[in-house]
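User: Predict the complex with 2-acetamido-2-deoxy-beta-D-glucopyranose.
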Amino acid sequence: MPKPLFPVALLLLLISSAPSPAAGASSVLCNTSYYTAGDPFAISLAYVLSDLVVSGSARPGQDYYSISPYPNAFAYGRSSCSGNLNTVNCSYCLRSAVGVVEKKCPMAIGGRVELGKCGVRYEQSPFV
Ligand SMILES: *[C@@H]1O[C@H](CO)[C@@H](O)[C@H](O)[C@H]1NC(C)=O
Ligand SMILES: *[C@@H]1O[C@H](CO)[C@@H](O)[C@H](O)[C@H]1NC(C)=O
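Assistant: Here is the predicted structure with 2-acetamido-2-deoxy-beta-D-glucopyranose placed in the model:
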């Protein structure tokens, strides 16, 4: 007589009902082209990443778009927070997302990070 399938089914049920990793899920995409040290894009990017945290956390639930103000190299960015977050927690989440994109996409001309409750993206060209 074959072994009952019950233990396997129970195991699958336990796995699928475990707390969803999506709550803290993160995905990272980096452009495979890079800027060089001394490229003015670095300064524009630093401006945009900072602005994404400071201004982007003001209205959780709404996407925020940023453009660097320096004319010699533009950086474009977008940040978003879940509408469930308050501004303090949105700011904290965006700071983490910026930290991740800086660490995982060093000197990439574009990068995206999605954490569970917020995300950031930057590019050298406008995007929506
Ligand atoms: C914000 O963070 C605080 C402290 O970490 C936490 O107690 C609170 O539940 C969070 N609020 C939201 C809306 O996530
Ligand atoms: C990398 O950046 C360039 C210039 O902005 C863009 O054309 C290209 O689509 C990007 N590649 C990816 C994979 O995002």
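The pocket of 2-acetamido-2-deoxy-beta-D-glucopyranose (ligand 2) is lined by residues 31, 33, 109-110, 123-125 (CB under 6 Å).
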